[in-house]
């Protein structure tokens, strides 16, 4: 899904026929597709890789969901394969408790760090940001390439960790110490060690990316592109960049410390006097398990806004375009995004209310948590109000974008009872939490990203995606997602804890509603899986057989990304763009054809 | 409201502070519900009314009223009320306002030491002499989770329900649990009592509640702690004070530090 | 930030030779100050203040001055652009948030007057 | 296609790209080392009171070699000033001077690393010995008549290894008693190194001053090693610019000068970290 020639992937000598006058010579296959420094190609690399990881993360979850619905039964289709690959842990195609924990930890890790962040920030950020600000490329193209390659190898390491003795990391995506260290204490080089090294690579990649994005946005805006003329998408990426830049290093530090704990038996996070399986653990002791949690959540909370801000950016672009009117309250949205970014650094301990927290600290953190919900409400409200008075085109991309709003709404609203510590006493670490954040990241962020794919696909390939397949994909996903995640609130209120390999059977009778919902959720997840088939077909088939776009600006959009040739050549713009107005001049009173592009001369 | 939540699945509370907590959960959900229903109605209306076929020409300015600002302020005000009026006091009650002993053995709070380990819970009472036996890390083992010193006189009458043995609590007496762990982080969660507290090695964290219903209850481990996390169930029973005294006295004879090797 | 078209002089920090020569003198003075600072810090160690708090405060105070000299003169932070100042300002805020909130949290714990801590070193 | 502002400053921000980039990178480094410093403080203030090594988990104090550390600080500060002088030389169009200053910088960088590895080795061969009768000493050991060093023995002695090699007794040279804070060094007696022979069967714990011995050593080694990696990385970059990369000077002096400035910023930052690291781990 890159240039028209990328359909010949792998054939080696792609010599595109179209006009690249200013190129000195055509780069070879490796330079063009693997070691490219062009932000668009890197964006596409990020996109394909992260979609594969998204798919893989989902497959892990399907295995887990099957286990929850049918404990002790072999997994259909892939059970044999799992046994062949993983041996004892998947004996007879049944997932053991350990393997369930591994899959759970890796599902969380892969979804967050290898699927959504690279898709939202790496892929969309890379492809769209320079185009929207009118830049020829990223400020540091080679750093950009390095960032992708480091990410890629971090991902490979994560995948490889399934095959080391003892299996992949199995202490949750949060990797709480001491469990993360003592789970395989006698085997210092284990899945957790690989996880940590993988994380260090992923963090490094994100840092390189963040430096690059922020510099690009500060330095390479086209002439006339003032800060308040930036599309909201760019603002979202800008704030995201800062979140990654400043929140990730503490986790990198923590990762290094835990790595040393695992490899050299130090005890940064191990307190004195641990007795594991009746044996005193041979470490010096004196460490603090809570230190790990502080460092983890110092990243962890900003990270969730890394997952949501780019999604909000994508949705804003698409809503403005398809309502054919300017975003309502653009400025307040920008300030809200900045406040979210700022506040997200000082709310982290709301994940730690029940680790023994006094009233003062707990009050501080729940106050900041409530404060941060306000800018979210502001952004959502602005988007809602933007619908009023529009002339709404319901294409697939818009369908996904508008359904982001209530889905994120549900996820965000259910964050409130978690944010108040009094109610978190009851809801902490229950399926209510699982329901809360999946509503935000799955039907929320994933929908926004789907919307973005349908929206920018024509720019990337010169062809539309199929609308019929798209609508099947949309309705299937909407129904599937809700049937999967809504029942989790009930399970959570019922008192069902998360990360239970038996789905809570130890605590609930077989006819308890909580257990029955497990089965129905799994069926819904299967429906969700089926609904993705048209999408996968659509992505690949439309490269060749999609309807061709009529011009460079098929959606009649105003932003600079649509003022480029399709697909944009190396260097992006035929001539240096100059910006004269704000980003969303749709239906402006004096507009001809219903909109005024940002670079149209006044 | 609380009833509505219970219909949605929340089990009935069995501790004195339970109803207040449940009410609070209810109020938050009312706020959420109002916002959700209100916005959803507006949203569906907007999508329907302004579809392209019904409104071919978009309005450049859009909404001019300041409704949304008031709404946002409204949300903020409600949040402040919930925060200051409920969440903070409820929390302070849970972590600061511990019941204190007044010297009456019939009504004084009972302290129970709770120890989590992979994948069992253990409970430890001071026994009739009201003195904890001597405890040391180096005595701790797989079977002696509290590290009780077998030779210490104060420990002879301690009541220990180790390694998943169900323990008992009297109705209507304040219970202070001192929660810790010997290996990894667990979480001591009593769904019916509305109590959750992580059990963290290296720390002892108190939590308290007053049971109000005679019944059998379970302890859930609510923090991932290894391969047996899902089956790390604990059991306890709330019984009448008379039955409890009987059980306690009996247990004091057989249990205690001496019973460990 | 202003519009792009407001062209500022292209060489905002264009120094001429004379300028640089005076800079070099500054660098050497700073170098001397840094060495003196180091000596004072170490000397302080051998003096032994009674209170740990005073020792820490003095040591960090001297270190901060040295840091200020390095950042201000060697790294030209004293005459840097607004963009950089704003970036560093947020960083410093988060830096302190991380340190102080973490410490504060570990000091504010639920306390029950007689709680006896078993597995506490 | 060319990326704008690679070396010419952008008019409205007044900065060229790499300058923005390096400051952003340094911001992230501030958070990285900030997290490590925070960890250090938290671990230290929660550690039990008492005097190491008598109280097993008390925080060790004053174990590091202060004269050497001071000297190393001076080395690093020197390298910092020479790097800025190198940049100034380029500004004044004096390439020869530039290269001379760069050479001094590089020498300081590798000198720093060399001294640091000497210090590491010193720690790896220094032991904490706890006997079953409660005596505690620190000092050096000799096994089978050979001083236990790190590099020549391959791995570090502990009880396990003594058992495996069926060593029955070791020679131990205890450090002179440390003066109490405030006390003057009592001349003579206190400086004595006590020699003794220790039966392996009497030993409760034997461990060198390595990471797993104590959280202090753990964090000391991790932070200084990370800092050392920064020194190494910085030195490689500076070395590149001083020699192979210097050909750019002829083609595009302005861009080359900028590169030196940016590399210098990184180098000063590494110095800055050390300015805090040195008092915190050596002196406090
Ligand atoms: C993108 C991800 C994302 C986002 C945006 C959020 C947003 C929020 N989160 Fe969430 N959260 C997670 C991802 C996210 N979270 C994850 C992954 C976890 C679990 C981690 C783990 O333990 O593994 C978690 C856990 C978590 C906890 C810890 C729970 C526990 O472990 O006990 C808490 C507690 O305070 C919390 C609170 C909040 C709050 C108050 C918000 C607020 O920012 C929300 C603000 C939004 C709103 C208030 C909605 C506003 C909308 C409207 C008003 C319009 C409504 C309209 C219609 C419905 C039509 N979250
Ligand atoms: C961004 C984060 C993210 C996302 C998107 C998801 C998506 C999903 N998650 Fe996950 N989840 C987590 C983050 C995420 N999750 C985390 C952090 C945890 C906690 C882990 C822990 O306990 O440590 C968790 C835990 C978790 C649990 C709880 C497990 C337990 O506690 O025991 C469950 C249970 O059902 C679950 C289910 C799902 C489901 C059904 C989806 C679905 O929504 C998936 C939807 C995916 C798709 C629909 C795939 C689409 C893919 C394609 C279309 C591929 C196209 C490919 C090409 C074109 C090449 N998740
Ligand atoms: Cu113990 Cu989970
Ligand atoms: Cu959070």
**Shape summary of chain C:** flat
Q: Rg of chain A to the nearest angstrom?
A: 24 Å
What is the name of the CATH topology of chain A? Cytochrome C Oxidase, Chain A
CATH class of chain A: Mainly Alpha
Strand content of chain A: under 5%
Mean pLDDT across the residues of chain A is: 91
C-alpha end-to-end distance of chain A: 35 Å
Unreliable runs of chain A, pLDDT <50, ≥5 residues?
Answer: 1-23
Helix share bin of chain A? 55-70%
What does this structure look like?
The complex is a heterotetramer of chains A (602), B (261), C (121) and D (284). With 602 residues, chain A is mainly α. Chain A has one domain: Cytochrome c oxidase-like, subunit I domain (Cytochrome C Oxidase, Chain A), CATH 1.20.210.10. In chain A, 61% of the residues lie in helices and 1% in strands. The mean pLDDT of chain B is 88. Chain B has 261 residues and is an alpha+beta fold. Chain B is elongated. Helices cover 31% and strands 21% of the residues of chain B. Chain B has 2 domains: 2-96, Helix Hairpins; 110-260, Immunoglobulin-like (Sandwich), CATH 2.60.40.420. Chain B has helices spanning 2-8, 18-49, 67-95, 241-254; strands at residues 110-117, 120-125, 159-161, 167-170, 175-181, 186-190, 195-199, 205-209, 215-221, 234-239. Chain C folds into 2 domains: 1-79; 80-110. The radius of gyration of chain C is 23 Å and the shape is flat. The termini of chain C are far apart. Classes of the chains: A mainly alpha (602), B alpha+beta (261), C mainly alpha (121), D alpha+beta (284). Chains A and B meet through helix 4, strand 1, helix 9, helix 11 and helix 12 of A and helix 2, helix 3, strand 7 and strand 9 of B. Bound molecules: heme-A (HEA) (2 copies), dinuclear copper ion and copper (II) ion.
Defining traits:
heterotetramer, B: about 260 residues, alpha+beta, Helix Hairpins, Immunoglobulin-like, 2 domains, five-stranded mixed sheet, 4 helices, 10 strands, about 20% strand, C: about 120 residues, mainly alpha, 3 helices, about 0% strand, disordered N terminus, disordered C terminus, binds heme-A, binds dinuclear copper ion, binds copper (II) ion
SSE topology sketch:
The complex is a heterotetramer of chains A (602), B (261), C (121) and D (284).
Chain A: H1 29-34, H2 39-69, H3 79-86, H4 97-133, H5 141-160, H6 179-182, H7 191-219, H8 232-264, E1 275-276, E2 279-280, H9 289-323, H10 330-343, H11 359-387, H12 396-413, H13 415-419, H14 421-427, H15 431-461, H16 467-493, H17 513-545
Antiparallel strand pairs in A: 1-2
Helix pairs in contact in A: 2-4, 2-5, 2-17, 4-5, 4-7, 4-8, 4-9, 4-15, 5-7, 7-8, 8-9, 8-10, 9-11, 9-12, 9-15, 10-11, 12-15, 12-16, 15-16, 16-17
Chain B: H1 2-8, H2 18-49, H3 67-95, E1 110-117, E2 120-125, E3 159-161, E4 167-170, E5 175-181, E6 186-190, E7 195-199, E8 205-209, E9 215-221, E10 234-239, H4 241-254
Parallel strand pairs in B: 1-5, 4-10
Antiparallel strand pairs in B: 1-2, 2-3, 5-8, 6-7, 6-9, 9-10
Chain D: H1 17-45, H2 66-91, H3 95-124, E1 127-131, E2 136-143, E3 146-147, H4 159-164, E4 169-174, E5 194-199, E6 203-208, H5 215-242, H6 248-251, H7 253-283
Antiparallel strand pairs in D: 1-2, 1-6, 2-3, 2-4, 4-5
Helix pairs in contact in D: 1-5, 1-7, 2-3, 2-7, 3-5, 5-7
